[in-house]
Amino acid sequence: MKYLYALEFTSATLTIGTLGAFSDYMGRKKVLLISSCGQFIYLLLFLLALTHASSSSSSPSAAPSSPSSPSSYRAARICLFVATFVNGLTGSYGTYLSGLYAYAADLTKRKPTDRGVIFAKIVGCLALGNTAGPLLSGLLLNGAGFFLPLVVHTIMAGLTLVLIGWWVKESLDPGDKPSEPFRICRQHNTFVVLYHFLWTRQHQAMEGGGRDGGRDGGRDGGREGGPAPSLLALSGCFCLAFLGLVGQGTIFVYYAKRMFGWKADVLGYYEALTGGCKGLVMLVLLPFLYRLLHRPFNDFAFVAVGLALSCLYFALLVFLPTPVAAFSIIPLNALSQAAYPHLRSLFSRAIAQDSQGQLFAALSALETLTTAVSPLVLNSVYNASVRAFPECVWLVLVFALVGAEASLYLAFRAFRRNGGGKKGGKDGGKALLASIGEDGDEERQMDV
Description:
Growth Hormone, Chain: A
């Protein structure tokens, strides 16, 4: 299994940046189709591998000494590796989400103050799906084994592919397509995209001059090289915040089994309740708060409050390590998830509209790297402290989120500094702060 994960991680890392650039130059719909098609082929090959394995094990000649059994299992393993490679080569789940976020950014380009709440609705739908999916799979698994849930999953992936091809309209303006898109896409692999967004100002919308405001001036020279402090600070905030998100999902299972004695059914109820609360917060409560508190609140405030609630959640796990407390603070955990869609919105509004695909591809790469590193770090901390102080891992996450708050503050200071810079960048800086929510008086021109 670890080899399959490594293969998918490697192939997706090599292609996700190119597919992000491809979506900026050739359209979001094409990338959504590529990613969905890869997922559909992956599931078909997975079904083929399962069929080979089950046929060899159910036949009378399935003994190890039989020549047909090794060949069937060899064919099944080949199908699994090919399926995983195809899924990673088409960008895997990260490319699909990056295309989806870029699509939403296109739809809200004239009403950027709605971008955070649209991203929150996407996260809410994903949370409800991640809650309903395991429940449905568990019911099918108890009745028909592994084969039927996989068939249902394959059918749903095929329906998704058909719906994208037939119903989804292209959101990218045709006038933004360059004359040589494939040459440009080849130059934008994942590592180049990360370099562009973390160390250069090539794609920034307005900070320091940017593309749309203060092009001829600005504090730091607009599109010239050099680090972009606001994006570096936001990237640090993103990685540290995502560390907390991944840590809660990976370590809590081991912690609850050891400290609370929870079995798989109780853990399932806990995860289902958490996902349901998260979906309700993102789809119902957060849009209501957004409409109610739009004037005094902005994306920076939503992120800051969400990170503070995450700190409080992990601190309560440290000082109240009981099963009743773990269930009672689920709503607090759900409310804290408001930080993540609005953090994406901060990135999106600081980047030029024609580079949104590359931006979300870079964020998906950061998520993938954080997801690969954080379990190793947190598992090491938990295993080292489990006998003396098992809650130490939650304390580490509290400090990580405090670091995320500090990085967010540095990003806010960088935006404010560039907004109050020299005359050449004055208009661009004001426009940037207005788009992020510092000044919420812009006209609403387009409905989503």
